[in-house]
Amino acid sequence: MSGATFIRCAARTLLSVPACKTVKIRGYHRQYWTAFRNITLAITGGRTALLLTIPTLSYLGLEASNRVQNATAVHALEKDEEVIEQADYLYSCGETEKLYQLLLKYKDSDDAEFLWRLARASRDLSLLAHITAEEKNKLTFGAFEYAKKALEKNEACFAAHKWFAVCLSDIGDYEGVKVKIGNSYIIKDHLERAIELNPKDATSIHILGYWCFAFAELPWYQRKVAAMIFASPPNATYEEALTFFLKAEEVDPNFYSKNLLMLGKTYMAMKDKEKAVVWLSKAQDYPPHTEEDKQVHKEAIDLLKKLGA
Fold first, then answer.
1. Full DSSP string of 163-187
2. Is the pLDDT score of 166 beyond 80?
3. For 159, phi and psi rounded to 5 degrees?
4. 129 vs 6: CA distance, rounded Å
5. 94-198 domain in CATH 3.30.70.120?
6. At what angle do helices 112-126 and 133-153 cross, to 10 degrees?
7. Which residues in the chain are classed under CATH 1.25.40.10?
8. 210-309, CATH topology level
9. Residue 139: CB partners within 8 Å, gap ≥ 6?
10. Whole-number Å distance between alpha carbons of 288 and 309
11. Is the pLDDT of residue 257 over 80?
12. Can you give the pTM of this predicted structure?
C-alpha cells in the first residue's frame, strides 16, 4: 500500500469512528482517546513518513498495545470509582474501622478524593471509645497529614479544605491555647474557601457556625491570652453562629445530629428557652447511627432536663 493510499484509508476510518468516548468519573468528564487518535497526531504532526515505515504487523501490534494500555487505564479509573463508592457506603453505615482499613491502602495516592476521605476516617477512628490516648494522638496527627496532602494535590477540592480545617483544629488540642487560637484564622479561611467552592455543603457551613460559637463562649482567660498575642484576636457572636447553623439546616434539613444540638445550645446561650427546647428535642429524637450521635443524644437529654423540659 502506498503512503497516499494508507492516509486515505486512515482518514476514512477516522471519519467512521468517534475520536473519543467519554467516561464520567466522580462528576467530572475524562476523555479516553482510541488508538486512531495516535494516527491523527502522527499525520498532523508531520511524522507521516515515520509512521508509514512501520511494517503492517508491527503497526497492528502497536495498535493492540495502545488499546490494552487504554483499557487498563479505564479499568483503573473504574476501580477507583468503585473504591470511592464503597468508602462512602461504609461511612454512611458508620463502619469506621472497616472504612479506615480500606482507605489506608491509598495513603500514598495522588488523588485528593482518597486522601480527604482517609483524613476523615482517621479522625473518626480517633474518636471511638476504645481507642487509647497514644492511638488517638497518632490518628489525629495522621488525619492532618492526609488532609494537608489532599489540599496540596487539589486546591479546588472543597472537602480537602473542610477536613484540613477540622484536622488543624484537632491538633491544636495537643499544642496549647496559643497555637490553637493562632490557627483559628487559618481554620476560618479554609472553611470559607470550602463554602465558596461548594455553597451546598451543609457540613462546612455547620463547622463555620461551630467556629463562631466557640469564640462567642471563649472563657475570659483565653480571651486574655488572645488579646496579649494578637492585635485583633478572633471574635464572634452567638447571633453569627445561629445564622450558620440555620443556614446549614436550610441547605440540608436534619442532616446532622450535632447541628440540631448546636441550634439548641445557641438558643440557650441567647436565653430563648422555647426555641432551645424545640431543637434539643429534635437532637434527642435523631436516630443514632454513630458514636457522635449517641453522645449528642445524651447531651440533648441532659440539657432538656436542665431546662425543665
1. HHHHHHHHHHHHHHHHHHHHHHHHH
2. yes
3. -65, -30
4. 70
5. no
6. 160
7. 94-198
8. 1.25.40
9. 122, 123, 125, 126, 131
10. 21
11. yes
12. 0.71
